[in-house]
Design brief:
five-stranded antiparallel sheet, alpha+beta, 13 strands, single chain, 186 residues, 2 helices, six-stranded mixed sheet
Length: 186
């Protein structure tokens, strides 16, 4: 026990020990390896049409009008990039004219700082497609709600969805795509 105390009293050894512990703590924070074993399932329904009423006419009763339902404008299958990823992506116009990107049956790894990106980049197979999505135009639709399930991501009203051709599950921390889908117009 005396030898250990003698070694730990040396300033160089103590400094190296503090740096090693701080480095390990930072590495755990940055990589968050425990997320690889944690799944988060989110099951959201596609937003539905809310029944509206026509303005009252002079001599008629109010009759409900039903706007057209959600329309799929484009869709595609997710392919794997940095992590095994599967599921379907749909670009949907809702009855009120707004748009959502819908992920259905998503199955990917969890990770630090995952985002859903709508991009103009081509989807490439293998490692060639891992880093292309931040090269052109993209819109971050927010943090990935869960690494499994079906979920919706609203497009900002000022985004023209016809200018984008793909969706990526993007790891913002490491600038890499976990998986992506080319959007084929319906």
């Amino acid at each position: 026990m005396g030898r250990v105390r003698k070694v730990l009293n040396r300033p160089l050894i103590m400094g190296m020990l503090v740096v090693a512990v701080a480095g390990a703590g930072f590495g755990l924070y940055w990589f968050q390896p425990w997320k690889l074993w944690q799944d988060e399932t989110v099951e959201e329904a596609l937003p539905q049409v809310v029944e509206t009423f026509a303005p009252p006419a002079a001599e008629s009763s109010q009759t409900p009008t039903t706007p057209a339902g959600p329309q799929t404008l484009a869709s595609g299958e997710l392919i794997s990039h940095e992590h095994t990823t599967s599921g379907t992506v749909k670009l949907v116009r809702l009855a009120d004219g707004s748009h959502v990107v819908r992920l259905e049956n998503l199955d990917t790894s969890n990770g630090p700082d995952l985002r859903v990106w709508l991009t103009d980049a081509p989807v490439k197979e293998g490692t060639a497609g891992w880093h292309v999505f931040d090269d052109g135009k993209y819109v971050s639709l927010g943090k990935l709600k869960g690494n499994k399930g079906s979920q919706n991501y609203a497009l900002p009203s000022d985004v023209d969805p016809s200018r984008y051709t793909s969706v990526s599950i993007w790891c913002d921390r490491f600038d890499v795509s976990f998986g992506a889908a080319e959007l084929a117009r319906a």
